[in-house]
Inverse folding.
């Protein structure tokens, strides 16, 4: 755990979903390969399936931006069909028990909830996807709110977190996430940022600007203990 700041105990913690709470690749990659099989069958895509690492490197982005990188020459119709298929296939996977949380996520969230910390999710994903994960993995009841770009139509995570803070009148929160968009969302809104480095989707500079970097989710409890 890399601590570069004296932390204040938060009234709330705001979590990214993919790469922070949820091991996205355990659900995403099977769906990803099926998606391209269907796109080829329907005539929306030709050639080999793009490398998995390209998709994993886009996690945390808005879907529009993901497809611009993964299918740069795809038509708008192909990109919209990819949206539909990804959601459909991932929801099917969740129903079939595909996809898991990171170690100790549920237990840590339960303990933070017991301590009176208000818990939220802020994700750039689609509404049904984000909420389905929380439902399927038994953590939905722990959150005061689950916010997604898909539901609120926000252009950035900065805007999504600002909306969340305003709607719940939160002054002091920890933004917990694994991508630069999470760091930006926390800092632009004047909040503490806890960077998560256990997923490994981003490069070395991904979490630059975080107040603390953790290497396992359960380290949040120690940080909360130590905070003033």
């Amino acid at each position: 755990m890399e601590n570069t700041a004296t932390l204040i105990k938060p009234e709330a913690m705001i979590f990214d979903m993919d790469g922070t709470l949820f091991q996205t690749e355990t659900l995403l990659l099977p769906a990803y390969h099926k998606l391209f099989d269907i796109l080829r069958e329907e005539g929306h895509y030709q050639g080999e399936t793009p490398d998995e690492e390209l998709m994993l490197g886009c996690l945390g982005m808005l879907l529009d931006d993901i497809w611009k990188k993964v299918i740069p020459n795809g038509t708008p119709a192909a990109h919209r069909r990819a949206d539909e298929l990804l959601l459909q296939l991932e929801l099917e996977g969740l129903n079939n028990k595909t996809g898991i949380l990171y170690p100790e996520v549920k237990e840590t969230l339960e303990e933070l909830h017991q301590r009176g910390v208000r818990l939220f999710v802020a994700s750039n994903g689609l509404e049904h996807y984000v909420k389905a994960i929380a439902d399927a993995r038994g953590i939905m009841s722990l959150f005061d709110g689950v916010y997604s770009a898909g539901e609120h139509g926000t252009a950035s995570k900065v805007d999504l977190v600002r909306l969340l803070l305003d709607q719940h009148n939160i002054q002091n929160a920890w933004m917990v996430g694994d991508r630069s968009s999470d760091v930006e969302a926390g800092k632009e809104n004047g909040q503490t940022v806890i960077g998560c480095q256990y997923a490994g989707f981003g490069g070395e500079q991904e979490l630059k600007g975080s107040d603390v970097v953790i290497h396992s989710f359960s380290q949040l409890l120690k940080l909360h203990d130590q905070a003033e």
Summary: The chain is about 45% helix and 15% strand.
